[in-house]
Amino acid sequence: MIRYEFNYTFNPKVDTAGTEILYINDRKVAERTLLKKEGLVFEYDEGLDIGRDNQSAVSPLYKPPFAFNGILNKVTIDYR
């Protein structure tokens, strides 16, 4: 199972908007700080990719575009 979390933090005195975290089978595999300017781009430009990463990498371990070459048996989007 792959899970993505975005933890928004509001502080007008800093340039960060929060953190984004990627989990695989409930194990954290990547985390990074999201800058405010990236949050603005993400909303309109980045979108949601399933089975590939077309633009911004979540981890420095790969470079986009990156296509997953395995099998996705199920995709669940839980928006809270």
Please, what is the average pLDDT? Answer: 80
Total count of helical runs of at least 4 residues: 1
Based on Cα principal axes, name the global outline. Answer: globular
Alpha-carbon Rg, integer: 13 Å
Percentage of residues assigned to helices: 10-25%
Order of helix and strand elements from N to C terminus:
EEEHEE
SS elements, strand count? 5
How many domain modules?
A: 1
How far apart the termini lie comes to 18 Å
Largest beta-sheet characterization: 3 strands, antiparallel
Given as residue ranges, the uncertain stretches (5+ residues, pLDDT < 50) are: none
Strand order of the largest sheet: 1-2-3
Quickly give the structural class.
mainly beta
Beta-strand percentage range? 35-45%
How does this structure look, described?
The chain is mainly beta. It has one domain. It has one helix and five strands. The protein has one helix at 36-46; strands at residues 2-8, 16-24, 27-35, 52-53, 66-67. It has a three-stranded antiparallel β-sheet. Strands 4-5 form a two-stranded antiparallel sheet. A hairpin with a 2-residue loop joins strand 2 (16-24) and strand 3 (27-35). It is globular, with a radius of gyration of 13 Å.
Keywords:
5 strands, 80 residues, mainly beta, two-stranded antiparallel sheet, 1 helix
Q: What's the short story on this structure?
A:
Helices cover 14% and strands 36% of the residues. It has 80 residues and is mainly beta. It has a 3-stranded antiparallel β-sheet with strand order 1-2-3.
